[in-house]
Every structure is written in structure tokens, then in C-alpha cells.
């Protein structure tokens, strides 16, 4: 498989588009949880009940196919029809949850062609509608999820209660059933050691922050996911406003930190990002930890204008493509950790040289 | 998230280690945590501390006032069970998930304090499905008007209050139909 062909599969179409605040915010996601009244939640449903849920959702989708192009071109994929590797790739692209891939016996996903909409069926709840948009576009993601929810609701009877709102398997999701999250890249705040103060403050206002890859405050690649915790007692708009407000502040702080770094230690920063580029472009073995850090540096270099001729998207792409599942899919075979480190560096080199070709042409 | 150690299983164990004032956070799956021997280092958490256990910690904390006679784990004569799916509250407090929509009605009394603890609120203020909307919307509007009426009366704005009273009456009539 050629790298270009592989990338076509690896990179969701929605990822190729540049979103607002993309120098810091990589993506915005909204997912809403819904259940049908007629069946127990997936944890307790029998095979035939779970199958019936899939059928009901499928029929609702077919009736509403013409409502939106995203639904028209969507595809219903059943977990049992996928290999473990295929499932893993979907998990690495954040299109399905590990739980759907591993635990669900009758799980399915309705996936739009551009992969911005993924509707999981029989995960923890009967239905989980997820919409992903590049950059900071929480409102748009909610608007889309909300519309899909409306279309489905015409044909499905949702479990809803005056007091508790939309009923979910886990009471931490009850009410709006909404989980909104934003993926942010905060390298300058990390370098200037400001994250230790910032992150606890965020959890104090009822939001959750976690590293997307790696551990805690030293998250690999300085990528964090900020999301709402509370789903009950606030409206969807209030929840989104609060998250958006906090993310905007994080953007300001990160911008300021970048500016300070450029002013006070420009040559050190320049050295760091180019050094990382050199490692990515020339190394022959690279583990995922180092790869993530180097990619983060290069991305910072691109976003601050210190590195030219590399598109900002390369980091996001490579972060996904250098995950174990993808590497193995690209290789077409199972790989152990050492083999992966070699393949990873090769893939990164190839991808970066493609950038160069484009730059020259 | 996937366990960063094996990259295979979901990370269910989240903890913070503080060594000589240096704080580091870890996210592992239970298998890797066991391999790393991290379980042993955490007194009191021999079985790890996953999210659902954390939740069930909150649940057990709730010594239910509605059921008297909880003499330190003595078997209760009556087991509270959801009539629709058969889940008991005990089971729920272990797994942290409900079995069906009716569990919310069955366990409502115990649920309200839990929801307050988790969300800070116990009543929904967001979207309402179109089907249930009509009636519920009117009832919500009614509540809002009543609150406003009380405020106006307090502020001695009687003209406005009278207008609200009429609105409330007509809404109530609509609801009774």
C-alpha cells in the first residue's frame, strides 16, 4: 500500500480542514447519549434485544437518510464484521470507544463518509451520537448532533424523565447526556511550567482535563482534552458556553506563553523545534513517546512560524498514524514493539519527505 | 483512553503519586498495573480504583435514611429490586450503572442525593424530546411564571403581578384540558 493511499484511509476527511483557533485547538467533539424506552440498557439486554436496537436505529436512519448528506453517505458497520486490527484503528481515530470495540457483543457504528459523525449503537448506552469538527467549533458540533438527535427522535422513543432528563446507563451522564470536549495543544505553557497551576484550576470549575497520550501533567505531546463533567441541571448551551469560555482562556494563556518564549528565548526555541525536526527527518528508530514529543515541538515550530514548508496538519496526522494499530495496518502484519519503532520512524520520514516534494513543486 | 503501557486495554486505573513532593499522574489498565506492582503500593485499594468503583464509593457512602435497621450489614428482609430489569440497588452500587430506564423511578429516593453529589443538581434543565415537549414545556413555563410572580409581589409591583397571575391561570387551564 502506498503511503498516500494509506493516508487516505488513515486521516478522516474532517481532519484535513483547518478549523478556527487551529494553532492551539485541534478538534472539538460533542457526544450525546440516548436510550430507547422499549429495551433494557445494553449491559442487561439479551442478544435479541440488542439486535432489535440496532435494527430500530438502522430503520430510523434509513427514513432520515435524505435529511442530510452526512447521513446519506453513512455506513452501518457491525463490530462482529471487523477484525481486531480494524476495530483498533477505529479506536485510534477516536471514532469508536475501546468499550465498543472490546466489550460490546452487538455493537455497531453508523459512520459518515467524512467520519465527522459517528453514532455508536449498544455501547454503554443504546445510542451515542458523536460529532467531530476541526478547531474550536463546539457550537457547530452540538448543532449537528442536536439535529441528528431530532431526526432520530421522530422514529425512536427515547427514555426521558421530567426530573432526570435523558436517562442513561451511568448516572454521571444523565440529564442532557452531553459530553463536550476540546483537544488542545499547550506546549508553551508546558515549557514555561505553567500547566501545574492551570490544570487544577480547570478541574475546580467542574471541567475535566486529561492528557490524551501519556501521563498526567507530562502528557505526551502536550495534548490535553478538556471536557464537561456535569450533565444534569445545566442546559446544553450553558455547558458549552462554560467549556468554550475556559478553552478561550487557555488559548490566551498559551498564546502569551508562546510570545514570551519567542521574545526571551527565541534561539533556544528555534533550536529545539529544528532539532526535533532533524530527529524526525533522519532517525531510524523512534518510540512513540519520543515521536509524540518531537511532533509536538515541530508543530509548535510551524505554528510560531519558526519552521516553514511543513503543513501544520502533519503533526495531527502523524500522531494518529504512528499509533500501534495504524502502524500494523500499514505494514499489513502484526509487529512487536521494536519493529514498530523502526516502522514508525520510516513512516514519519516518508511523510515529511512528501511535504518537501509538495513544497518544491 | 487506552492504557499507555500496553496500548491494548482501556486505562481504568488513574492515580497520582507524590514522591518527595514531586507529583506524577498515572493511567493504567488493571493488567499492566498489576504487572507494575502498583496495586501493592496503594494501601486499601487491593482491587484497584477504577472509575465505577469510585462512583460506587459515593453510592455506599449514602447511608440510606429511607431504610431503617441497617445494623452493620445485617441482611435486609426486603431487597429493593427494579421490577422491570431485576437489578438491585446493591448491584447498582457495585457496578455503577443502571439496568434500564425504570431503575431511575425505582431508586429515585436514593438517587437524588447521589445526583446532587455528582452534578450539584438533581433536575434536568436541558433539551426535551419533541414528543414530551408540549406538556412539559407548559409546566416549566408555569413554574417560571410562579417564581416571577413571587418576586413581583415581594417587590410590590402589583400591576405586573396581576398580569402574571392571569397568565398562570390560563396556562393551568390549558394543562388541565
UniProtKB/TrEMBL annotation, chain A:
GO CC term, one of those recorded: extracellular space
Please give the Gene Ontology molecular function terms for this protein.
ATP binding; creatine kinase activity; protein arginine kinase activity
Biological process according to GO: phosphocreatine biosynthetic process
* Domain named Phosphagen kinase C-terminal: residues: 24-257
- Residues that coordinate or bind ATP: 27-31, 94, 128, 179-183, 210-215
The record's listing under Pfam families reads: ATP-gua_Ptrans
Enzyme Commission code: 2.7.14.1
Looking up InterPro entries in the UniProt record yields: Arg_Kinase, ATP-guanido_PTrfase, ATP-guanido_PTrfase_AS, ATP-guanido_PTrfase_cat, Gln_synth/guanido_kin_cat_dom
Instruction: Look up keyword ATP-binding and say if it applies.
Output: yes
Q: Which keywords belong to this entry?
A: ATP-binding, Kinase, Nucleotide-binding, Transferase
Lineage: superkingdom: Bacteria
Which Gene3D superfamilies does the entry link to?
Glutamine synthetase/guanido kinase, catalytic domain
Enzymatic reactions: L-arginyl-[protein] + ATP = N(omega)-phospho-L-arginyl-[protein] + ADP + H(+)
Asked if Kinase is a keyword of the record, the answer is yes
Q: What is known about what this protein does?
A: Catalyzes the specific phosphorylation of arginine residues in proteins.
Q: Which family does it belong to?
A: Belongs to the ATP:guanido phosphotransferase family.
Stated name of the protein: Protein-arginine kinase
What is the native source organism of this protein? Lihuaxuella thermophila
- Name the gene for this chain: mcsB
UniProtKB/TrEMBL annotation, chain B:
Protein name according to UniProt? Protein arginine kinase activator
UVR domain location is 139-174
Pfam family, any one: UVR
GO MF assignments: cadmium ion binding; cobalt ion binding; copper ion binding; kinase activity; zinc ion binding
Q: Name one GO biological process term.
A: stress response to cadmium ion
Species for this entry: Lihuaxuella thermophila
Q: Which residues form a coiled coil?
A: 139-174
PANTHER family given in the database record: PROTEIN-ARGININE KINASE ACTIVATOR PROTEIN (PTHR38430:SF1)
**Keyword tags:** Coiled coil, Kinase, Transferase
Amino acid at each position: 500500500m502506498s503511503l498516500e493511499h494509506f493516508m487516505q484511509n488513515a486521516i478522516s476527511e474532517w481532519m484535513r480542514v483547518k478549523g478556527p483557533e487551529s494553532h492551539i485547538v485541534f478538534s472539538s467533539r460533542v457526544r450525546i447519549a440516548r436510550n430507547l424506552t422499549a429495551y433494557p440498557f445494553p449491559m442487561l439486554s439479551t442478544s435479541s434485544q440488542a439486535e432489535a436496537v440496532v435494527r430500530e436505529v438502522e430503520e430510523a436512519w434509513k427514513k432520515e437518510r435524505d435529511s442530510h448528506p452526512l447521513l446519506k453517505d453513512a455506513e452501518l458497520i457491525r463490530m462482529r464484521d471487523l477484525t481486531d486490527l480494524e476495530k483498533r484503528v477505529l479506536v485510534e481515530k477516536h471514532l469508536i470507544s475501546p468499550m465498543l470495540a472490546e466489550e460490546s457483543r452487538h455493537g455497531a457504528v453508523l459512520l459518515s463518509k467524512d467520519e465527522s459523525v459517528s453514532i455508536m449503537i449498544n455501547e454503554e448506552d443504546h445510542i451515542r451520537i458523536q460529532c467531530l469538527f476541526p478547531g474550536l467549533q463546539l457550537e457547530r458540533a452540538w448543532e449537528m448532533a442536536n439535529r441528528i438527535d431530532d431526526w432520530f427522535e421522530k422514529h425512536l422513543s427515547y427514555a426521558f424523565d421530567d426530573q432526570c432528563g435523558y436517562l442513561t446507563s451511568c448516572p454521571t451522564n444523565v440529564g442532557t447526556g452531553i459530553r463536550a470536549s476540546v483537544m488542545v495543544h499547550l506546549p508553551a505553557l508546558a515549557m514555561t511550567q505553567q500547566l501545574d497551576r492551570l490544570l487544577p484550576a480547570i478541574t475546580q470549575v467542574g471541567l475535566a482535563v486529561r492528557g490524551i497520550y501519556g501521563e498526567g501533567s507530562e502528557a505526551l505531546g502536550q495534548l490535553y482534552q478538556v471536557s464537561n463533567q456535569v450533565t444534569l441541571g445545566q442546559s446544553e448551551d450553558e455547558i458549552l458556553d462554560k467549556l468554550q469560555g475556559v478553552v478561550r482562556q487557555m488559548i490566551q494563556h498559551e498564546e502569551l506563553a508562546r510570545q514570551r518564549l519567542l521574545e526571551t528565548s527565541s534561539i533556544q526555541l528555534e533550536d529545539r523545534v529544528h532539532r526535533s525536526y532533524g530527529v524526525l527527518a533522519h532517525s531510524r528508530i523512534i518510540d512513540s513517546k519520543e515521536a509524540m514529543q518531537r511532533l509536538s515541538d515541530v508543530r509548535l515550530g510551524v505554528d510560531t512560524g519558526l519552521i516553514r514548508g511543513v503543513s501544520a496538519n502533519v503533526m495531527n496526522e502523524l500522531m494518529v498514524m504512528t499509533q500501534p494499530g495504524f502502524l500494523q495496518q500499514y505494514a499489513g502484519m502484526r509487529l512487536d514493539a521494536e519493529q514498530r519503532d523502526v516502522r514508525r520512524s520510516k513512516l514519519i520520514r516518508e511523510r515529511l519527505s512528501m511535504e518537501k516534494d509538495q513544497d518544491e513543486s | 483512553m487506552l492504557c499507555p503501557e500496553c496500548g491494548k486495554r482501556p486505562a481504568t486505573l488513574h492515580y497520582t503519586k507524590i514522591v518527595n513532593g514531586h507529583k506524577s499522574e498515572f493511567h493504567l489498565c488493571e493488567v499492566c498495573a498489576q504487572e507494575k506492582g502498583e496495586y501493592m503500593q496503594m494501601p486499601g485499594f487491593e482491587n484497584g480504583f477504577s472509575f465505577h468503583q469510585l462512583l460506587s464509593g459515593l453510592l455506599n457512602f449514602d447511608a440510606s435514611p429511607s431504610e431503617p435497621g441497617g445494623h452493620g450489614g445485617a441482611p435486609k428482609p426486603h431487597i429493593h429490586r427494579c421490577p422491570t430489569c431485576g437489578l438491585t440497588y446493591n448491584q447498582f452500587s457495585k457496578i455503577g450503572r443502571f439496568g434500564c430506564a425504570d431503575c431511575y423511578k425505582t431508586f429515585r429516593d436514593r438517587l437524588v442525593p447521589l445526583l446532587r453529589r455528582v452534578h450539584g443538581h438533581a433536575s434536568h434543565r436541558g433539551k426535551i424530546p419533541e414528543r414530551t415537549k408540549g406538556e412539559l414545556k407548559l409546566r416549566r413555563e408555569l413554574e417560571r411564571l410562579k417564581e416571577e410572580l413571587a418576586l413581583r409581589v415581594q417587590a410590590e409591583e402589583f400591576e405586573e403581578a396581576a398580569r402574571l397571575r392571569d397568565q398562570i391561570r390560563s396556562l393551568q387551564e390549558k394543562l388541565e384540558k
